[in-house]
Design brief:
Largest sheet: none
Number of domains: 2
Radius of gyration: 16 Å
Structural class: mainly alpha
Number of strands: 0
Order of helices and strands: HHHHH
Number of helices: 5
Helix content: over 70%
Length: 114
């Protein structure tokens, strides 16, 4: 999910090979770190230990922030509110298998309301 949000946020175009490398690295981090922490958090919830759950949740969120920070640094980007990416085109390129109705619903959900 972090990769998808990052792809929407990034204010510049990247070559397809760069996207592929970024997606691979993000997937690796998500699989080896974030998902394991998430599984731990869910297991802790079942033993009724609120402090442990909160600690695991904080660790999971930190893991996602690390991934997002790494993606930003790997692309050498700084936030640029002036340049806006073509989100529909980006989502189409990155997730071509996504049905058009789902893509439209997703874009409607993330776009700021006037």
């Amino acid at each position: 999910m972090i990769f998808l949000l990052f792809a929407c946020w990034l204010p510049q175009a990247l070559p397809p090979a760069h996207w592929t490398a970024l997606e691979s690295a993000a997937t690796d981090w998500n699989t080896t770190v974030t998902r394991r922490i998430r599984a731990l958090r869910r297991r802790v919830r079942t033993i009724d230990w609120p402090q442990g759950y909160e600690a695991a949740l904080g660790l999971e969120l930190a893991s996602e922030r690390i991934e997002a920070t790494w993606l930003a640094r790997a692309t050498g980007t700084a936030e640029d509110p002036i340049r806006r990416p073509d989100l529909d085109q980006r989502i189409g390129c990155l997730f071509g298998q996504l049905p058009p109705a789902e893509r439209t619903a997703f874009l409607a959900a993330i776009r700021p309301r006037p």
